[in-house]
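Researcher: Next sequence.
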Amino acid sequence: MTATGLSGRSVFLVEDEVMIRMMVADMLEELGYKVAAEAGDITEAMRLAQATEFDIAILDVNVNGKVISPVADVIKAKGCPFIFATGYGSSGLPEQYRDRPAIQKPFQLDALGKTIEAALRSG
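Model: Next structure:
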């Protein structure tokens, strides 16, 4: 996939599975985005969501058995767009965020790029 006018933007990535987080970070870099911060648990994600500047967030819905809603709330309050990454389908999204974009795991580079671009454009 080629870089778009949206490349160069920064992404906050929350994913509890280390290998998946590394893979997604690599995909983001390949798409031309930079990873502003990464978190593997809710506590760290809350801290980073409040302290880090980023253009968009990718949030795993279930982080070590905990729902991502508190982190999504912080990001929403900051006015930043975010997308959910889930293996559970749209029914697995937190109820109050079922209108937000989601990408089904496992996802391909092209699908990730299109989902991020759409969220940034509408965001």
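Model: The first strand starts at residue 10 and ends at 14. Residues 16 and 40 are 4 Å apart (CA to CA).
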